[in-house]
């Protein structure tokens, strides 16, 4: 089974794809999608959707997972994040794939064992779980963590 994980953001959306075969996980790809900060909100959302569609068509995942929105101090930032997250979920769902959602604390706990893990701990664990992985950046790391969380949850639900 191939799983795409997304860490949505308007400025940068991370994506990570893993394959699960039994209890074995392997890295397929990861990357980051940056939108043009000078474009209108609508144009940026279209740009994000088009890039996600390209990734989905290229890698043909069987399922997708998205990190849930956390509330920022700035309501405008939260709203922009929510809009990017909506596009991320739509891109996966429109491809006919099931979409799972996971809170940040669940993702951190699934990977590191504690919901308070920091980015460095997550990146270290990714390198342990996916030997040789080259991370495209923090958002891509977070997206791979989402994909791995979903892969592990699939195993526990069956």
Automatic annotation (TrEMBL):
EC number: 3.1.21.10
Recorded GO MF terms: hydrolase activity
Reactions listed under catalytic activity: Endonucleolytic cleavage at a junction such as a reciprocal single-stranded crossover between two homologous DNA duplexes (Holliday junction)
Residue numbers annotated as active site: 7, 67, 139
Record: residues binding Mg(2+) 2: 67
CDD domains: RuvC (cd16962)
Compartments where located: Cytoplasm
Cofactor: binding comment: Binds 2 Mg(2+) ion per subunit.
Keyword Secreted listed: no
InterPro entries: RNaseH-like_sf, RNaseH_sf, X-over_junc_endoDNase_Mg_BS, X-over_junc_endoDNase_RuvC
Keyword terms of this UniProt record: Cytoplasm, DNA damage, DNA recombination, DNA repair, DNA-binding, Endonuclease, Hydrolase, Magnesium, Metal-binding, Nuclease
Keyword field contains Oxidoreductase: no
Cofactor(s) named in the record: Mg(2+)
Record's function text: The RuvA-RuvB-RuvC complex processes Holliday junction (HJ) DNA during genetic recombination and DNA repair. Endonuclease that resolves HJ intermediates. Cleaves cruciform DNA by making single-stranded nicks across the HJ at symmetrical positions within the homologous arms, yielding a 5'-phosphate and a 3'-hydroxyl group; requires a central core of homology in the junction. The consensus cleavage sequence is 5'-(A/T)TT(C/G)-3'. Cleavage occurs on the 3'-side of the TT dinucleotide at the point of strand exchange.
Name of the protein: Crossover junction endodeoxyribonuclease RuvC
């Amino acid at each position: 089974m191939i799983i795409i994980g997304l860490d949505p953001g308007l400025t940068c959306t991370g994506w990570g794809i893993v394959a699960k075969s039994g209890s074995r996980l392997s890295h397929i790809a990861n990357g980051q999608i940056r939108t043009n900060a000078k474009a209108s909100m609508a144009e940026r959302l279209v740009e994000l959707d088009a890039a996600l569609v390209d990734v989905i068509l290229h890698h043909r995942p069987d399922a997708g997972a998205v990190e849930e929105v956390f509330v920022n101090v700035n309501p405008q930032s939260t709203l922009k994040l929510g809009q990017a997250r909506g596009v991320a979920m739509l891109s996966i769902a429109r491809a006919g794939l099931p979409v799972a959602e996971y809170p940040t604390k669940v993702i951190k706990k699934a990977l590191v064992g504690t919901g308070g893990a920091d980015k460095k701990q997550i990146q270290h664990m990714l390198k342990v779980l996916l030997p040789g992985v080259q991370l495209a950046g923090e958002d891509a790391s977070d997206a791979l963590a989402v994909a791995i969380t979903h892969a592990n949850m699939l195993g526990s639900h069956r």
